[in-house]
UniProtKB/TrEMBL annotation:
Residues 5-62 form the Glutamate/phenylalanine/leucine/valine/L-tryptophan dehydrogenase C-terminal domain. The keyword NAD applies. PANTHER family: GLUTAMATE DEHYDROGENASE, GLUTAMATE DEHYDROGENASE 3-RELATED. This is Glutamate dehydrogenase 2-like protein. GO terms for molecular function: glutamate dehydrogenase (NAD+) activity. The keyword Transmembrane helix does not apply. SUPFAM superfamilies: NAD(P)-binding Rossmann-fold domains (SSF51735). Keywords: NAD, Oxidoreductase. GO terms for biological process: L-glutamate catabolic process. One of its GO terms (cellular component) is mitochondrion. InterPro entries: Glu/Leu/Phe/Val/Trp_DH_C, NAD(P)-bd_dom_sf.
Length: 65
């Protein structure tokens, strides 16, 4: 089965699965690193990482509070 991405490129199932695996692995590593830095559980690490990413994007876009 083939899939299209947002740019209209066609990907085969193997490429989709590989990209998903890389994305999930990188995401877990980022959460794990946050947990080590702040000595917290995975739930709090994921929440902290998400809040930090939103805050960074807000600053980069010039929407500082």
């Amino acid at each position: 089965m083939d899939a299209f991405n947002i740019q209209g490129f066609m990907w085969d199932e193997e490429k989709v699965n590989n990209e998903l695996k890389n994305y999930m692995t990188r995401g877990f590593k980022d959460v794990k690193d946050m947990c080590k830095t702040h000595e917290c559980d995975l739930r709090m690490g994921a929440f902290s990482l998400g809040v930090n990413r939103v805050a960074r994007a807000t600053v980069l876009r010039g929407w500082e509070a």
